[in-house]
Amino acid sequence: MLPRFNVRASISFLVDTGADMTSLYPLDGARMGLDYSKLDPNKAITITGATGTNTDYLEDAVAVFLDFSGRLCMYAIQIVVSTVSGGSTTPTLLGRNVLDHWRLHYEPRAPRLEAFPLIADAFVPVDMSAIGHAPFAVADRPE
Fold this sequence. Notes:
By secondary structure, this protein is mainly beta. The protein has a single domain, classed as Acid Proteases (Cathepsin D, subunit A, domain 1). 10% of the residues lie in helices and 39% in strands. It is built from 3 helices and 9 strands; from the N terminus they run ββαββββαβββα. The strands form 3 sheets. Strands 2, 3, 4, 5 and 9 form a 5-stranded mixed beta sheet that branches. The protein has a two-stranded parallel sheet with strand order 1-6. A two-stranded antiparallel ribbon has the order 7-8. Strand 4 (52-66) and strand 5 (71-81) form a beta hairpin. The chain is globular and about 40 Å long. Mean pLDDT is 86; it is low at 134-143.
C-alpha cells in the first residue's frame, strides 16, 4: 500500500536477500494504478543494480503479509519505486528492510522457502474461517 497515492494491490515478490530495500517495479506499479508523474523529485535517488543505473524514488509504504496462524504482519517501510525503462517484466523485490524481521528457511529438496515473521510494526489477528485459506506463503512456525 502506498498511502500518499491511496493505492494498494496484492503483489507477488521475489525474495532478494541482497537488496537493502524493497523495490516496486513498473509492472506492479502500473497494476496498482500508481501515477508516476506524482513521484516527488526531492526523493529521487540513483540506484545501481541488476537492471543498470537508474533514477528511482523513495516512497513510504505499508507492506502487509498474512501468516498461517491467521495474523496480518504489517510493516511501515520506505520502498524504492523503480522507473527502470524496459523493466516491465522485472518482478517487485522484497528486500532486507522486511526480510531482516523474519527467519527464513530454505529447503532445496522441496524446493521451498519459508518465512517466519519475528517482528512487525503490528500483528493483527484475522479470522481464517472468514477467508477459507492463507493466500500467502508466509508461515508462523517451523514444522
